[in-house]
């Protein structure tokens, strides 16, 4: 009996992934060997691969012979939070050109929005207020990206042509043309002190949880902006609201929240200095990602190491 694949994503129907993977894996009989959780396959011992997005805690335990879990997104924090994650099972994250491209679009858009004061012009339009505001030069505007990995490095490269002064903060030192590298805990203070527009593209780990808080916001120059497209857990919402209300932070673009969907009574929804989007900065694209997922499934089944493995010790 050939091994089976299980798809576990309570949030996203399986259809788009099945449709994209079917031509990419002609050797797999999808009608027989692709199961959509919670429909339990007749023989859970026969499942070797799980394709998942935010699987409920404990769901993976039902498959005792899993060889790998393939995450259908970049962030694996929801999986790392599952204390019952089967020990020793390889975890693969998503690195996909479309996912990266779409995130850079979002970051460039939000950065330009604040840089060109479009949030203020939007409010002026609603007030029928026809005035010119002073225009800052991009050459003097300092953008700082928390996390200079796949997404952060690409966003930095896309921002460079506008002339911004770009820096990034990561665990290890980076060499990217035109991008100043700050790293380790000791680099965080100097990085924040030189940042007018802060972009968060970190993974959510024990070390990065709550990293945007009263203390770090206070280290940004007065009038700085915050763009969080990573995870809601990076941000202490009450601290951001306080900094917005004192005027220390001039505006924030938030795509991710501690509780999603954002609760109807959350003050961020209506805050005049906050732009809210519903975790859409970059959505996974089955059509783009299918070829790499298929290649990884083949590698795993041949007993080879898959690409884009998560470092379980680092947590990302
Ligand atoms: P990567 O793993 O490629 O990059 C992570 C970066 O963060 C690396 O530069 C890493 O440093 C740095 N980092 C990790 N821990 C620390 C730390 N403790 N201190 C300093 N730097 C640290 O991740 P991606 O770029 O692919 O993705 C980033 C996150 O974006 C995802 O985890 C996900 O949460 C979020 N995301 C959000 C989406 C949305 O729609 N809103 C869509 C896709 C992703 P080093 O390079 O030295 O290892
Ligand atoms: C991801 C996301 O991590 O969409 O891919 O948030």
What does this protein structure show overall?
The chain is of the alpha/beta class and 316 residues long. Helix content is 31%, strand content 17%. The protein contains ten helices and twelve strands. It has helices at 15-24, 30-33, 77-80, 97-115, 118-126, 150-159, 184-193, 214-219, 237-246, 286-301; strands at residues 4-8, 34-36, 47-52, 68-71, 90-92, 142-146, 165-170, 179-183, 197-200, 224-228, 249-254, 274-276. The strands form two sheets. A seven-stranded parallel sheet has the order 8-7-6-9-10-11-12. It has a five-stranded parallel sheet with strand order 2-1-3-4-5. The protein is elongated. The two termini are 34 Å apart. The model has no long low-confidence stretch (mean pLDDT 97). The structure holds NADPH dihydro-nicotinamide-adenine-dinucleotide phosphate and oxalic acid. The site of NADPH dihydro-nicotinamide-adenine-dinucleotide phosphate (NDP) has 30 residues, from α4, α6 and β7.
Fold topology:
Layout: E1 4-8, H1 15-24, H2 30-33, E2 34-36, E3 47-52, E4 68-71, H3 77-80, E5 90-92, H4 97-115, H5 118-126, E6 142-146, H6 150-159, E7 165-170, E8 179-183, H7 184-193, E9 197-200, H8 214-219, E10 224-228, H9 237-246, E11 249-254, E12 274-276, H10 286-301
């Amino acid at each position: 009996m050939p091994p089976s694949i299980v798809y576990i994503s309570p949030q996203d129907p399986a259809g788009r992934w099945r449709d994209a993977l079917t031509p990419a894996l002609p050797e797999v009989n999808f009608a027989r060997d692709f199961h959509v959780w919670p429909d339990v396959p007749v023989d859970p011992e026969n499942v070797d691969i799980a394709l998942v997005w935010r699987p409920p805690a404990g769901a993976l335990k039902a498959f005792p012979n899993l060889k790998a879990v393939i995450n259908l997104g970049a962030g694996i924090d929801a999986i790392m939070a599952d204390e019952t994650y089967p020990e020793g099972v390889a975890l693969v994250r998503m690195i996909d050109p479309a996912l990266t491209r779409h995130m850079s679009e979002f970051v460039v858009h939000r950065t330009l929005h604040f840089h060109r004061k479009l949030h203020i012009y939007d409010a002026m339009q609603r007030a029928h207020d026809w005035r010119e505001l002073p225009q800052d030069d991009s050459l003097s505007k300092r953008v700082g990206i928390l996390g200079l990995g796949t997404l952060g490095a690409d966003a930095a490269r896309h921002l460079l042509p506008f002339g911004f002064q770009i820096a990034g903060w990561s665990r290890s030192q980076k060499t990217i043309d035109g991008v100043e590298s700050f790293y380790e805990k000791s680099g965080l203070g100097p990085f924040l002190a030189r940042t007018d527009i802060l972009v968060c593209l970190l993974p959510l780990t024990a070390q990065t949880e709550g990293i945007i808080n009263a203390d770090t916001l206070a280290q940004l120059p007065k009038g700085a902006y915050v763009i969080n497209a990573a995870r809601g857990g990076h941000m202490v919402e009450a601290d951001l609201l306080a900094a917005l209300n004192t005027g220390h932070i001039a505006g924030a673009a938030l795509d991710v929240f501690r509780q999603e969907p954002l609760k109807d009574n959350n003050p961020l929804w209506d805050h005049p200095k906050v732009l809210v989007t519903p975790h859409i900065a970059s959505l996974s694209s089955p059509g783009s990602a299918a070829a790499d997922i298929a290649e990884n499934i083949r590698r795993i089944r041949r007993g080879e190491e898959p690409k884009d493995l998560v470092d379980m010790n680092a947590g990302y």
